[in-house]
Amino acid sequence: MVTHVPAGDPGDERGMLLAFVEAQRGAIRRSVLGLTEEQAASRPTVSDFSLSGLLKHAAETELNWLRLAQRRPNDRQRDETTWADGFRLVGDETVPGMLEFWKKVASETETFIHHEVGDMNDTFPLPPAPWYPENERCSMRWLLVHLVEEIGRHAGHADILRESLDGRKALDLVAEEAGSSGRS
Q1: What is the pLDDT of residues 2-33, one digit of tens each?
Q2: What mean pLDDT do residues 100-127 have?
Q3: φ, ψ at 137 (rounded to 5°)
Q4: How many CB atoms within 10 Å of residue 5?
Q5: Mind spelling out the 3-state secondary structure of 150-165?
Q6: CA 101, 161, 27, 95: dihedral to nearest 10 degrees?
Q7: From CA 124, how far away is CA 115, in angstroms rounded?
Q8: In whole angstroms, what is the distance from residue 75 CA to residue 54 CA?
Q9: Alpha carbon of 123 to those of 67, 79, 134, 140: distances in Å?
Q10: How many CA atoms lie within 13 Å of 108's alpha carbon, on the beta-carbon side?
Q11: Residue 125: in which H helix or E strand, if any?
Q12: What's residue 11's pLDDT?
């Protein structure tokens, strides 16, 4: 449970950036706290987003960027035919299963950054996409800042969806996760 990212060691750039990524992950994880599978899959607004879909999308997005940085194949890579499945649970997928999957991805991201990346200036190619310049590269630092941006954007969506479902606000969920009765 992170709502404030402490400064920690001011010289530990990797740790600081990973702490900000984890803060955003936590916001999405908390958004499904105490919900049934049906509630998490519901779409309480005119958007196509559901909380379980955002959870899956954020986890798969982190995995995708990790695999790009590692220069390894991604067995969950989406294309035009499977894109929509990246925003909803399908088959035997469940919220607890997706939380566990993301926990493993997060651990792998942290291990990679702390133990396999030699320098935060090391680069890898951006994927081909209409929104990226051709033959562009990005650094490991860029990767972590982008994960903060991407996961944070969806954490905001999750806040709105959760409040639309049952009126619970992000700080209420922070208190519930911490074991207190919530805000007064």
Answers
A1: 467 776 776 799 999 999 999 999 999 999 99
A2: 97
A3: -120, 155
A4: 16
A5: HHHHHHHHHHHHHHHH
A6: -20
A7: 17
A8: 19
A9: 13, 24, 15, 6
A10: 17
A11: strand 123-125
A12: 74
Does the predicted model carry a pTM greater than 0.85? yes
Per-residue pLDDT, averaged over 157-169, amounts to 96
Reported as a pLDDT band with limits 50, 70 and 90, residue 139 is very high
Q: E strand or H helix at 139, and its extent? A: strand 137-139
Please report where in the chains the tokens 């035997």 appear, as a residue.
92
Judge whether 64 and 124 are in contact, CB under 8 Å. no
Amino acid at 78: R
The distance from CA 107 to its chain's CA centroid, rounded to whole angstroms, is 12
Residue 110 to residue 32: CA distance in whole angstroms: 23
> Rounded to whole angstroms, how far apart are CA atoms 75 and 105?
13
Distance CA 137, CA 123 (A): 6
